[in-house]
Amino acid sequence: MTDDEDEGESEGEALAAFERLGLTTYEAKVFIGLHRIGSGTARDVSQVVDVPRSQVYGVAERLEDRGLLEVQQSNPIRYRPVSTDEARELLRDRFEREQDRAFEYVETVKRESTGEETQEDIWTVRGRDQVDDRTVDILSQADERIVFGTRLPELVTDTIERTLTERAAAGVTVVVVSRTPAVRDRFADLDVVTVENLPDQRTDDQRSGRIVIADDDSILLSVVGNEGSETAIWSSGSLFASVLIQLLEASDELQIE
Predict the structure, then answer these.
(1) CA torsion angle for 123, 126, 127, 132 (degrees, to 10)?
(2) pTM (2 decimals)?
């Protein structure tokens, strides 16, 4: 690639970047052109950038309104760009103002939403790695109590084991429940973790994956498909999570093999 091609590609990228910052193509070209020559008339600018001289006047006026160039009232009129640092600050401020305006509106719409029904935050996660990540996230945020159960040793990853141990060491009550010896054995030597073996009641269950309860307001339940794929539902800080946890524990449905 020649030097001219390199320069053209770089200028094209710069123009695209300025456009993403809110400038038109002509505005970006004139601004770049003025920095190239330092200062000049509309004719000077049109000779170094691909903008007709008749268009330069209007473009320069808009750039002046933005605070990106200064105008010398001479004959002919001359233009000089502000420094790159000043221009950077101006464009940054403009971007932040537009960002605030956009998200303030979103927050207003969010607050003004009406209706008697409330959508509970119940989410679905598909895929073993994604369920692993969500499990670790829920465990990591527990401050008081954790119940973790599974019938499958492969669902107790090193990261999950480490997170459970760390939370227990931090003073969180951690209970691991499973009827599978290989799962219980991973925590048997840890004094900070309580391991429980639930009585057999559903020996034909081949679909249950894992259950995670944290602080009585976060829950994750998963099932495992025939090919080993895992799908989970989870909820945190919702009425759904609190009620489901109470129902599971009150009815002895916490059966993780």
Answers:
(1) 10
(2) 0.53
